[in-house]
Amino acid sequence: MKIAVAATGGSLDAQVADQFGRCRFFLIVDSESLRFEAFSNPASGMAGGAGPAAAQELARRGAQVVLAGTFGPRAQQALQAAGIRYVESSGKVRDAIAACRT
Hints:
Layout: E1 2-7, E2 25-30, E3 36-40, H1 50-60, E4 65-68, H2 73-82, E5 85-88, H3 93-101
Parallel strand pairs: 1-4, 4-5
Antiparallel strand pairs: 1-2, 2-3
Helix pairs in contact: 1-2
């Protein structure tokens, strides 16, 4: 399963970001192997619509689940429309992934 995580940095030891749409980085992690791709969130600096734009980017990259501290209502709608499950989470990315897998 591909799990996307809104993060403060580009590693598994980074913290899960408080906000989904305006996080600095996303990691897309393979839940079986823990191999991941890290990239800057292209929507982080948008004046408006960051949540839906971030949801579109994650859908394009094949994410099935996304973890973040909080999700705004428009981000929730966009994720639901894309068929991506979203889960509020905190702590280190590595620990959030482990909790999501169980």
